[in-house]
């Protein structure tokens, strides 16, 4: 081959390589990239969708564009979103998916999320969040001087779940919880209070995805401890019996910060019934005491009192689960692992079986430090 021919071929090759991937490029200014998806029902049970997309322009003072409309399905809503924006809508960058309470009251609502999983290019790490109130109010009332709502909500979920005060459930994890017969789903919940978005706690769903119960922040911490997902640093506050209260203040309470948490669950099947023995050991540092108490002389007595109060709250929480016939802890997974044959016979109605099971909790709190204040 001549040198001239090699130069021509090399030039053509470089031209082809430099143009690869550019034929279907999409300029940022020509794209709509929604970071949040919201779904809700109106009083007439019409399906509404909502989305929030950031604005990439210095000439536009508003940070985001909010779109909404009525559709028959999420896939059909894509065309409606395209009609409301100046660019092609890409649904592969959702940070959060907001679900209204009216949606959660419908059985098997999760089927409408099918389009999220059909396209393998979609992300499945979107945080699932229940909205206590109309989704439209939250979407169209962005808090002033705050980050974009999708970024704010995802940060809130990540931060609060790190403290155990809610759960961080991705859509992929929700898919697993919906179809795993040994657990019922749970997702974070937020509420718009005037112009502020507030983290409420955790929403518990039944096996068909319907709303069952809401946990506050402290009960959410207890749930995460039961699930073995609570990290060191979670905080708990309990009233101590026989301690005086001063005026309008709850001066009979004590708070502690967990330094180490050990949760063990032992299932068994006896007398045609499942039994669960849950043992929880918490090593904690005293973080607040609002009543006079001689800690140096009566540390053991306070440990016994706090352990009793902690155990009582765990037991009350589990009674709520049994009352609503839900299993957010995932005790069914323990039953399946240790008592497979017995679980196989009741797996299709596990929540009902759990409601009549014997569940006993033993909680022990050891105070490792009391702080520098006497």
Automatic annotation (TrEMBL):
Pfam families: Spore_GerAC, Spore_GerAC_N. Residues 201-371 form the Spore germination GerAC-like C-terminal domain. It comes from the Bacteria. It is found in: Membrane. GO terms for biological process: spore germination. Residues 1-20 form the signal peptide. GO terms for cellular component: membrane. It is a lipid-anchor. Residues 24-190 form the Spore germination protein N-terminal domain. Its main location: membrane. Keywords: Germination, Lipoprotein, Membrane, Palmitate, Signal. Belongs to the GerABKC lipoprotein family. This is Spore gernimation protein GerC. It comes from Paenibacillus rigui.
């Amino acid at each position: 081959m001549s040198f001239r021919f090699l130069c021509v071929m090399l030039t053509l090759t470089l031209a082809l390589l430099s143009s690869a991937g550019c034929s279907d490029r999409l300029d940022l200014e020509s794209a709509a990239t929604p970071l949040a998806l919201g779904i809700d029902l109106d009083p007439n049970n019409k399906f509404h969708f909502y989305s929030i997309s950031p604005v990439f322009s210095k000439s536009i003072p508003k940070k985001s564009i909010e779109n909404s409309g009525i559709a028959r399905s999420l896939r059909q809503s894509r065309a409606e979103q395209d009609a409301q924006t100046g660019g092609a809508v890409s649904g592969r960058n959702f940070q959060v998916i907001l679900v209204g309470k009216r949606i959660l009251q419908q059985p098997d609502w999760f089927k409408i999320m099918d389009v999220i999983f059909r396209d393998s290019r979609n992300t499945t790490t979107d945080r699932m969040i229940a909205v206590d109130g109309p989704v439209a109010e939250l979407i169209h009332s962005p808090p002033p001087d705050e980050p974009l709502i999708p970024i704010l909500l995802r940060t809130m979920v990540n931060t609060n779940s790190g403290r155990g005060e809610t759960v961080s459930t991705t859509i992929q994890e929700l898919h697993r919880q919906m179809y795993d017969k040994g657990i019922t789903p749970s997702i974070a919940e937020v509420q718009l209070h005037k112009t502020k978005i507030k983290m409420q706690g955790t929403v518990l769903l039944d096996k068909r995805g319907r709303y069952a119960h809401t946990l506050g922040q402290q009960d959410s911490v207890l749930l995460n401890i039961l699930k073995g997902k609570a990290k060191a640093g979670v905080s708990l506050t309990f009233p101590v019996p026989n301690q005086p209260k001063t005026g309008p203040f709850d001066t009979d309470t004590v708070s502690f910060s967990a330094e180490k948490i050990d949760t063990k669950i032992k299932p068994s099947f006896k007398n045609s019934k499942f039994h669960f023995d849950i043992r929880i050991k918490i090593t904690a540092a005293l973080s607040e005491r609002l009543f006079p108490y001689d800690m140096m002389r009566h540390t053991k007595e306070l440990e016994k009192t706090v352990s009793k109060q902690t155990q009582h709250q765990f037991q009350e929480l589990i009674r709520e689960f049994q009352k609503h016939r839900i299993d957010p802890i995932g005790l069914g997974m323990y039953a399946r692992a240790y008592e497979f044959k017995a679980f196989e016979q009741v797996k299709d109605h596990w929540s009902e079986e759990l409601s009549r099971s014997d569940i006993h909790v033993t909680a022990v709190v050891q105070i490792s430090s009391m702080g520098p204040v006497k």
